[in-house]
Amino acid sequence: MNDLLRDTLAERAAGTEPPPLDLDGIIAAGNHRAARRRTLGILGGAVATAAVAVGGASVLRPRNEQPQPAHPGPFTPRRATFALGNEIHYGSEVISVAPHKVTAFVQTDAGFVFLNADNAIHVADRAGVRSLGKSAWRLTADHRGNLVAWVETHNDQGESVVYDVAAGRELVRTPIGNKFPKYASLAHGPEIVALDGNTAYFGTLDGLYRWDIRKNQGELIAKVSTIAVRAVTAGQIVFQQPLEQRPPAVSLAVAKTVSATAPARFSGQQAFLSPAARYLFTETDDALISIEPGWAGPKLYEVETGRKIKLPYAYDSLFFGQWLDDDRFIAAGKRRFSEAAETDLLVVTAATGAVKVAVPNFSKLIFSTTPPRIAPFALPTGGPIIDLAE
What we know:
This protein is mostly beta strands and 390 residues long. Helices cover 3% and strands 40% of the residues.
């Protein structure tokens, strides 16, 4: 199987060039989730509780088919997974995507979707590697299912896209909410906040849309900026509280609706809820904060009680990978006293914070010397691990 994949050369994204990297914007963004968005963005807005229905038929033909098949896909099991160079390590299996270098990727039940060094989107599955002819800065996937999502940016607007990897087709493509204002200097652009089953959450320039993928219809559920909502899983929404604040916005609340009254009980920037929303892992956007404030560093919480779970002291840097189930997740940990920056792939038990080394010293946490300063490895979060230092 590996030989077949190694012999398969993926097409380049024909005629498709990714937008130029706005490095100045990344550095200026500092700790504002820059690892998750590197292009245009939006001005903050006040919360709006009114739901505005939007039909998808005007932007895409309605789909009658179910986006998720009934039978399990070939990559349904979640295993200790990482990408290094041109290989995706899926448990004991190694999948070559040569000649591409994986800079970011996600796992779906039908296969892996990754970005190469040119930000071109590719799929790697049992049949080989294929180009989708598209580009994006970041990918988003659920903890199960065949769907992946991204935002494509054009001169005057962005488009939110949901793609079924198993079926090989787009289910949603809509510019709704993503018209760029003329002559505006904006710091953050539209993004896919989350896929949660057959519901997508789009962080648009107008606010947060909840999109029914099967019906291809959406509604505006909160008039907030794209940096306000961090994650959605099992119907639970992680959002910054207060909803409007100057960066770095690190106080977080978890609730079923985006509300200005929900208590802020957690801290962090990037947020990763377990499949049943029992646990919340948070981390900073900047992989290497030189002067670490009290809110920085990885944190693990029990959502219902707000209890903070102690993480292992043996690792001074910890980066989330993906949930294996509702009680365990994988993470990359740099050994605290390692001068060579040796990094282990870990399986963490959420209830206790206990770790088990799945792959010892699988890489070094040494960042590229030229911007963007990314780690040599990638974890299946959809974005790269970035050092924002100049």
